[in-house]
Amino acid sequence: MIRVIALIAFLFSPLSLADIAVVVSEDNDSSLSKGDVEQLFLGENMFFPDGEPATVVTQRSRNSEYTRFNTAFLGMSNTAFKSHWSRVIFAGRGQPPKETSGLNDLLSKIRQDKSIIAYVDAGSVPKGLRVVLTVEE
After folding, report:
1. What whole-number percentage of the chain has pLDDT above 70?
2. Bridge partner residues of 129 (DSSP)
3. Where are the domains of the chain?
4. What contacts 52, CB < 8 A, 6 or more positions away?
5. Dihedrals φ, ψ of 8, to 5°?
6. Cβ within 8 Å of residue 27, ≥6 positions away
7. pTM of the prediction?
């Protein structure tokens, strides 16, 4: 009985993390699969499935969503993600995603540019953004 109570307390505590939502502007009507999103965030593709250019934006590397997205969605540590991008840059195949200075900066950019794809905590997706994929932790 004590274990059940402890489990319930943990699940409803502020420490339990929400999922990560991959988001675009509400003006962007692209449908994306998990594979499409992976290709965009790893620089293997620079276009949405409809042919429109995509601009990948991440949160700062010291942000918890950055680590959670890399781990849960890409299956990489932050170091492996940065190492991947170092190889892409060295090979001349692309530039790493732009980092934002914070959530407000990210939200402002997405609202102004429908080519941006990013991620936020699924529990805090504000108006003006559309969730294209949810990354479950």
Report:
1. 88
2. 25
3. 17-135
4. 28, 30, 115
5. -60, -45
6. 114
7. 0.83
Cα 62 to Cα 11: distance, rounded to the nearest angstrom: 25
Q: What does residue 23 show for φ and ψ, rounded to 5 degrees?
A: -130, 155
According to the 3-state scheme, what is the secondary structure of 57-76? EECCCCCHHHHHHHHHHHCC
* Encoded amino acid at 109, one letter: K
pLDDT tens readout for residues 63-73:
889 999 999 99
Give the model confidence (pLDDT) of 73-92 as tens digits: 999 999 999 999 999 999 99
* Count of Cβ atoms closer than 10 Å to residue 63 Cβ: 17
CATH classification code of 17-135: 3.40.190.10
Query: Residue 20 is which amino acid?
Result: I
